[in-house]
Amino acid sequence: MTSMRTPSSELPIVLDHVGITRGRALLAELSLNIAAGAPTVVIGPNGAGKTTLLRLLMGLIHPTRGRITFGGIETANPHRCAIVFQRPAMLRRSTAGNITYALAAADKPRAERGTRCAELLALVGLSALARQPARKLSGGEQQRLALARALAKEPTVLLLDEPTASLDPAATKAIEDVIRNIAARGIKVVMATHDLGEARRLAGDVVLLHRGRLIEHSPALDFFAAPRTGEAKKFIAGELLI
C-alpha cells in the first residue's frame, strides 16, 4: 500500500432526494454529492442520521424513496466499500489472525496473505502486537485493527462510524494519523463524528445533519469560518439543536 490509487469508480456518490422511513423519518429528502478527495466528515447531534447515512452508503439498508448512484451506477450493494463501526467485534484470534481472516474473506491469494498482512499491520502501527490476542488489545488498538481488517478488502470508499468515540487523546491521535494515511493513498473516507475538533483536523468537506435532514454541506474551511445556516452557527458554538 505504498502507491496512490486511481480515482474510485464508486465516486462520486450521489444521493437524490433519498428518504428512509422506519416508523419515522430517519433520513428525509436527502440530496448529497460525495466526491473524491479529502475525508467527508458527517456531524450532527445524536439521532441526526449519521449512522443511518453510513449504513445506507454501505448497502446495509435501502432507501424508502429516492435514488443513490455510485460512479453513475445505481446499485443496492456497492462492492468496493468497507465500513468500520464504533465498537467493532474482535475474532478470537491474534491481531495478525484477524487480518489474515479478513484477507481470506476478500479472496486474497493464500501466497500473498502473509506479505499483505504485514503491510496492513505496519500501516496501522500494530506490527509489534501481531501475535497478541485481539481481544486483549486496548480500545484504540482494536479500532486500528478494525481499520486494517476493512482495508483487507481493498476498498475505494471507507466508511467510519465514530472511530474515536470514548478514546483518550493519545489513542485518538493514533487513529487520526491512520485515517490521514489512508486518505493520502487515494481511498475516500466518509466519517461520522461528534467531535468538532476532529472534524476541523480531518475534514475536506463537512456534512451537517439534523433530524435526518441535510442542514449544510460545504468545504470545511468555509463551514467553520462562515457557516451559512443558523443551525450550523449554533452547532459550532456548542448550542443544542432542538
Key words describing this protein structure:
single chain, 242 residues, alpha/beta, Rossmann fold, six-stranded mixed β-sheet, four-stranded antiparallel β-sheet, globular, disordered N terminus
Write up this protein.
Helix 2 packs across helix 3, helix 2 (95-105) packs parallel to helix 4 (139-151) and helix 4 (139-151) runs parallel beside helix 5 (169-184). The protein is built from eight helices and ten strands. The protein is an alpha/beta fold and 242 residues long. 34% of the residues lie in helices and 24% in strands. Strand 1 (13-21) and strand 2 form a beta hairpin. It has a six-stranded mixed sheet, with helices on both faces. The chain has a single domain, classed as P-loop containing nucleotide triphosphate hydrolases (Rossmann fold).
